């Protein structure tokens, strides 16, 4: 009797996250300004990064399946294990290191952006650009490596850069006005 009540209520946080991703494609500065105005929340930034890693793992799975079919010496289970290890455990550590390096550069250049602002904008940009990565995974899995995958990869890089630069400029403007 309680199951229909539970199933009838979608998770508002998940819906809000997908709505924020869609809104980022319309105006990344507005979404980032709203996130930054909510205050420092390291858990939210880490959650963005971990969800990104999970979605990137999902995006890489079709290509891993294609490679396992073409080269049976590497079974799919092993490929997926190492892919999950890379994207869910190693990539977050590398992203924190990259964010720290960018923070050092911003301190030297006196950009006025805090370490949290850099982390939040970087992690959100990665999460918001994962729909393009999912498309890249489908292209790489169905068509294989080639010009199509390169075009979608360049598209992802442009979208990610757009989101991140917009977020950093918003954080810098917000920091200058405080």
Describe this structure in words.
It is built from eight helices and no strands. It has 178 residues and is mainly alpha-helical. The chain is elongated, with a radius of gyration of 18 Å.
Task: Provide tags for this entry.
178 residues, 85% helix, single chain
Quick overview of this protein structure:
By secondary structure, the protein is mainly alpha-helical. The protein has helices spanning 3-8, 12-26, 28-37, 42-70, 76-108, 115-128, 130-142, 147-177. Helix 4 packs parallel to helix 6, helix 6 packs antiparallel against helix 8 and helix 7 packs antiparallel against helix 8 (147-177).
Write the layout of secondary structure elements.
Layout: H1 3-8, H2 12-26, H3 28-37, H4 42-70, H5 76-108, H6 115-128, H7 130-142, H8 147-177
Biggest sheet statistics: none
The helical percent reads over 70%
Oligomeric composition of the shown chains: single chain
Which regions are unreliable across 5 or more consecutive residues at pLDDT < 50?
1-8
Structural class: mainly alpha
- The outline comes out as elongated
Give the CA-CA distance, first to last residue.
52 Å
Mean pLDDT: 86
Strand content: under 5%
Number of discrete helical segments: 8
The number of E-state strands comes to 0
What is the string of helix and strand elements? HHHHHHHH
Compute the gyration radius: what is it? 18 Å
């Amino acid at each position: 009797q309680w199951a229909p009540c539970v199933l009838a209520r979608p998770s508002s946080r998940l819906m809000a996250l997908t709505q924020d991703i869609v809104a980022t494609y319309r105006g990344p500065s507005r979404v980032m300004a709203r996130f930054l105005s909510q205050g420092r929340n390291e858990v939210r930034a880490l959650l963005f990064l971990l969800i990104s890693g999970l979605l990137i793992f999902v995006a890489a799975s079709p290509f891993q399946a294609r490679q396992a079919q073409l080269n049976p010496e590497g079974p799919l289970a092993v490929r997926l294990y190492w892919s999950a290890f890379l994207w869910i455990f190693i990539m977050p550590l590398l992203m924190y290191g990259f964010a720290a390096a960018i923070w050092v550069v911003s301190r030297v250049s006196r950009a006025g952006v805090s370490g949290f602002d850099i982390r939040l904008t970087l992690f959100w940009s990665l999460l918001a650009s994962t729909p393009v990565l999912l498309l890249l995974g489908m292209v790489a899995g169905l068509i294989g490596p080639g010009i199509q995958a390169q075009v979608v990869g360049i598209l992802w890089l442009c979208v990610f850069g757009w989101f991140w630069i917009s977020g950093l400029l918003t954080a810098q403007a917000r920091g200058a006005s405080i």
